[in-house]
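Exercise 7. Given the encoded structure of a 136-residue chain, write a plausible sequence.
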């Protein structure tokens, strides 16, 4: 008796192929919430500097925020420049946030001294996992 071997590739359904490709890709990362809030603070400050708003109270009324919330957002600009840069480049997978704005205010912004802020930032970084994205 003679055996005949026929090699063939089984068809992979499109849905299975797409799910296999999706599993092979690294998960998408997005800017951290605190990074978006810091970017908002910079954008709002530019609008104040351009004369669009006379002060934070006018800005709060125009944007529908409370004056306290505008102050909280704008206080992020008091962070040391190198900390701001690091925060702006934080990427996180969906559903994860390395640090909240409140925790940042309660720990780092308690001091306006940039050296002290850097020490507190280093302490915070050692407690929390950060994954800064590569600068482009």
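Solution.
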């Amino acid at each position: 008796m003679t055996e005949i071997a026929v090699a063939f590739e089984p068809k992979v359904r499109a849905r299975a192929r797409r799910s296999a490709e999706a599993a092979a890709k690294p998960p998408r990362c997005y800017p951290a919430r605190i990074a978006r809030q810091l970017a908002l603070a910079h954008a709002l400050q530019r609008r104040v500097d351009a004369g669009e708003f006379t002060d934070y109270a006018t800005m709060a009324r125009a944007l529908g925020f409370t004056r306290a919330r505008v102050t909280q957002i704008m206080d992020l600009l008091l962070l040391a420049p190198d900390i701001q840069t690091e925060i702006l480049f934080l990427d996180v997978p969906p559903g994860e946030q390395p640090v909240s704005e409140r925790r940042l205010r309660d720990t780092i912004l308690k001091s306006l001294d940039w050296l002290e802020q850097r020490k507190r930032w280093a302490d915070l970084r050692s407690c929390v996992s950060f994954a800064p994205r590569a600068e482009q």
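Remark. The CA atoms of residues 89 and 136 lie 10 Å apart. Students should compare their own answers with the one above.
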